[in-house]
From TrEMBL:
It comes from Halobacillus litoralis. InterPro entries: Diguanylate_Cyclase (IPR050469), GGDEF_dom (IPR000160), Nucleotide_cyclase (IPR029787), Rev_trsase/Diguanyl_cyclase (IPR043128), Sig_transdc_His_kinase_LytS_TM (IPR011620). It is found in: Cell membrane. This is Diguanylate cyclase. Its main location: membrane. Residues 225-359 form the GGDEF domain. It comes from the Bacteria. PANTHER family: DIGUANYLATE CYCLASE DGCM-RELATED (PTHR45138:SF9), REGULATORY COMPONENTS OF SENSORY TRANSDUCTION SYSTEM (PTHR45138). The lineage of its organism: Bacteria, Bacillati, Bacillota, Bacilli, Bacillales. One of its GO terms (biological process) is negative regulation of bacterial-type flagellum-dependent cell motility.
Length: 367
């Protein structure tokens, strides 16, 4: 009977933790979490602890369960705020079951475990040792309490070792589940970022550009906003690679990426679409404003000394094609084609310039 109730507690605990970890993976509990997140996690832990008490073993007025595990978890990951929130809910829930000597000692038990956990988490030791020490201290405290409350040696001789084993098992499995879900989510986030990011420059790659452009174009249509697109290409970049090597060419691409990010607005979207070709999506930006940004990019690149790994300084220029939805074209789907055509025109008519397409007319600008 003892094993059945404790194993039921373990199963309920693990299932609840897995669901909780999956549903809160975007904002996992930590000591740097917001106060709202800490309080919310503490309340959930307190509720789970109260549910575990409903499936406890009864020895007259004394009940035995794993209510301390949720409190330990939030104390370990979130610190004092969620620990105290869950602890108070456990105390209140226990008093609702019955107000007697057992419930008073249960109060002392959960307070002691909470304080021990908060103290142990501050020690300079490995995570595994902290978990083991926390679970051991809680088992020791439980043993003293249960020996005082129960006088039947036969019951104690079976209950205490069973509780220790299952408490260790539940504790380590609980930590494993949380760490497993967090590692899995971190890996997933990493893979998502890598799938959307250019490995060399850290900018969006062409896949992310396509996704972002389609989404933003739809929003521009819905909100009746201007949307500008820049196509940027490094002039004579092949010559840079042939003269200085591909390693130095990569250095130029990285530095150009920094210039682009620092020149456009914080909410604009910069991408490397491949090779020496870059794009900038200018949100809610009319042609005149886009022209100013384009010229600023062109001038900064032209005047910027690019430092190679050899210590040598070189200068490069860029050509830029510009198109604007609701001004140069009324079809967002044609924006990419129009900007690409404008870039082609800039390359064919001298380079180091910005070209805008307006219907079938081309207007070139150069400082």
């Amino acid at each position: 009977m003892i094993l059945k109730e404790l194993i039921s507690n373990v199963a309920l605990l693990i299932a609840s933790l897995f669901v909780y970890s999956q549903s809160t993976h975007a904002m996992p509990l930590s000591r740097s979490s917001t106060m709202k997140t800490k309080i919310f996690s503490g309340i959930l832990a307190g509720i789970l602890a109260n549910v575990l008490m409903q499936y406890s073993m009864h020895f007259d007025t004394t009940i035995v369960d794993l209510r301390h595990i949720p409190v330990i978890l939030v104390a370990y990951y979130g610190g004092p705020v969620p620990a105290l929130a869950s602890m108070f809910l456990v105390i209140i829930g226990r008093f609702f079951i019955g107000f007697n000597t057992s419930s008073m000692l249960a109060l002392l038990l959960i307070v002691s475990i909470t304080l021990f956990t908060l103290t142990i988490t501050k020690l300079n030791m490995s995570k595994r040792k902290k978990i083991f020490l926390t679970l051991t201290s809680s088992n020791v405290i439980f043993t003293f309490m249960i020996v005082y409350l129960l006088e039947n040696p036969g019951t104690l001789s079976f209950l205490i070792p069973s509780f220790w084993i299952i408490s260790y098992m539940a504790g380590f499995i609980s930590f494993y589940v949380i760490e497993f879900v967090r590692r899995s989510q971190n890996m997933l986030n990493k893979y998502k970022a890598e799938a959307a990011t250019d490995g060399l420059t850290g900018l969006n790659n062409v896949r992310k550009f396509d996704e972002s452009f389609n989404k933003i174009a739809s929003q521009a249509i819905h909100n009746e906003e201007k949307l500008s697109l820049l196509y940027i290409d490094i002039d004579h970049f092949k010559k840079v690679n042939d003269t200085y090597g591909h390693k130095e060419g990569d250095q130029v691409l990285i530095e150009l990426s920094r210039i682009l990010k620092n020149t456009v607005r914080s909410f604009d979207i910069v991408s490397r679409n491949g090779g020496e070709e870059f794009t900038v999506i200018l949100l809610d930006c009319p042609t005149d404003r886009a022209m100013e940004i384009s010229e600023r990019i062109r001038e900064r690149v032209e005047n910027h000394p690019f430092l190679l790994t050899t210590g040598q300084m070189i200068h490069i220029t860029v050509s830029i094609g510009l198109a604007c939805y609701n001004e140069t074209t009324i079809q967002p789907k044609l924006l990419i084609k129009e900007a690409d055509h404008a870039l082609y025109d800039a390359k064919q008519t001298g380079r180091n310039k910005v070209c805008i397409t307006s219907g079938r007319e081309w207007v070139s600008h150069r400082a």
